[in-house]
Design brief:
Elements: E1 7-11, E2 20-23, H1 26-37, E3 42-49, H2 58-72, H3 89-106, E4 114-123
Antiparallel strand pairs: 1-2, 1-3, 3-4
Helix pairs in contact: 2-3
Amino acid sequence: MGDKNFKWYVAYSIDAELFHSKHDTREEALKEGLGVYGDDPFVLIEADGSVVKPIFNVDWVVDTVLENLDENNPECWSEDGSEDAWQNIPALAASIEKAVADWLIANPPRTFCVDELRTTEFFNGAKAA
């Protein structure tokens, strides 16, 4: 899912691992492209950034948390361990999912993920792959 906040980016190729800068207008991006690449091939794209989705294996995280609680609190359990000691495990899972989602919003990753390309322009002989 994209953020629908379309910006203009510059790179040496449409297949580039990294599109640098982020400009509000095509003119700003083109000026940078000409300044950085001169007569060499480069590409402008207009795209919105992907929003990293908080999708992960919450069951594994819950199991790990409960296992660690069990191992780090041996005085709390009988010889059979903590089996059936935990109540409302779905609430723990929901709390972990919410915490990760909130954390992603407050701390977006420093990656370039594109959700939707609206415009692609090639300059100085740059070509689509």
